Predict the 3D structure of the following.
Amino acid sequence: MSKYYVTTSIPYINAPPHLGHAMEFIIADVLARYARQQSQEVIFSTGVDEHGGKIAERAQAAGLQPQEYADKMVKMFQSLSNLLNISNDRFIRTTDKNHQKGAQLIWKSLEKDIYKAKYIGWYCTGDEAFFTETEVKELGGICPNHNRPFERIEEENYFFNLSKYSNKIAEVIKNGKFRIIPQTRRNEVLSLIESGLEDISISRPKDKISWGIDVPGDNNQVMYVWFEALLNYITVLGYPDNNDFKQFWPADVQVVGKDIIRFHAAIWPAILMGLGLELPKTLYVHGFINIEGQKMSKSLGNAITPEDIVANYGSDALRYYLLRHIPSYSDGDFSLTTFSASYNNELANDLGNVVSRTLAMIEQFLNGQIGDIPPSEHDVALYEQALKDCRFDKAIEQVYDMIKGLNQYIDQEKPWQIAKTNDTEHLREVLAYQASSLLQIADLLTPLLPDTAEKIKIAFNQKVIHKMTENLFPRNDHD
Ligand code: MSP
């Protein structure tokens, strides 16, 4: 059985999860479910990033020790994963003992590429990122993402020899061994890498930040949070000795957002090269969700929570919107108005109705006795290609076209009129065609809207078919 490994990035736990995290979990879930459907053996890993100054600050503000704070916050991410029907096989926390041990082991294996030097420059704890003199000047000394002054840093740190890997990384991106999609992101990051990567600091002194993993052999330093967080993708598989690592690495797809592409397309490949490991096959970079046209932010008061939406509409409704209406290759907008219109028109009216109409007619006209349902053979090449290219929007569109086509078929065939004639065989054929198309639609929806797909399959996989007791997508006109 061939192996398939897919990961999400691991979100910080300094605030509750938002729609962006939800989208990333859902995307990786689609890939995992699709691979399982293709009979591949899958490990799908997600988790959380718990170290660093940002988390320590929040813990302090909450009057908690960082670990206590993390233990509390992690629950929200785990319950989001359940709520969204995410089928992850692993959930890593960077405070897990195995991760900490693994990170230290990796540090030691990389020692040939690590040296100590003075870092003079700038840092933003909100970003957990270092900034150069030029960047800080251009931004007027204030971090635009967090609206706070950059911190001036002058400290002894450990550095990783990233510059040494620039050419090799550029080469594997260019020759397609390390595929970055979409192409626009690939080009963007490639030009950054080709302009030459500088060595990066990978530790912080404990007197500045103590909430982190100890640097082996140095009691005064902890690892830079980004450095150890990236390692989660292999520590979760039990690097270096565990069979899972041996069988599942390299990852088939790593899913990340556009703001962290540099970490995943430059630093992570360099670490892997330093360890003599293969690079992930594909890095898929999604865009950002804006809310009502604005950047998602608590201070703007525009945070719509995934929990609220799922409570009102169900998890498949949210999955549908994020997969279809946030473009897979660019940024997209979420507004309750468009969400609710899409729900009512596309899910309640089109998909929900075609299922309930078909079931009702089979029950009413044939006493539920549909007989043999022939296999449906709509061409799915475009759907398959879309999923290979991480074009979730296009994949759903293909299924949606089938749903629309089926509704048109019913309107043309008018089974209720055939029922008035005595041509039962023709009536049965028409309804069996509808049922068979719906079974194929359910198959295609399995990775995308797993609950809905399951309900359709259960409804039509019986000897005697009845109306559903509940609507798949009841109309919801409240928002
Ligand atoms: N902890 C790091 C990742 C470490 S991976 C080794 C981090 N965390 S994060 O919580 O800030 O972001 C987690 C993911 O959510 C990232 O892929 C990021 O791009 C994504 N998103 C954050 N805001 C987003 C939107 N507004 N829209 C879509 N995704 C967004 O970075």
Observations:
- The domain at 335-459 is CATH 1.10.730.10 (Isoleucyl-tRNA Synthetase; Domain 1).
- Residues 9-12, 20-21, 23-24, 49, 229-230, 232, 256-257, 259-260, 288-289, 296 surround 5'-O-[(L-methionyl)-sulphamoyl]adenosine (CB under 6 Å).
- The chain has a mean pLDDT of 95.
- Residues 418 and 426 are 8 Å apart (CA to CA).
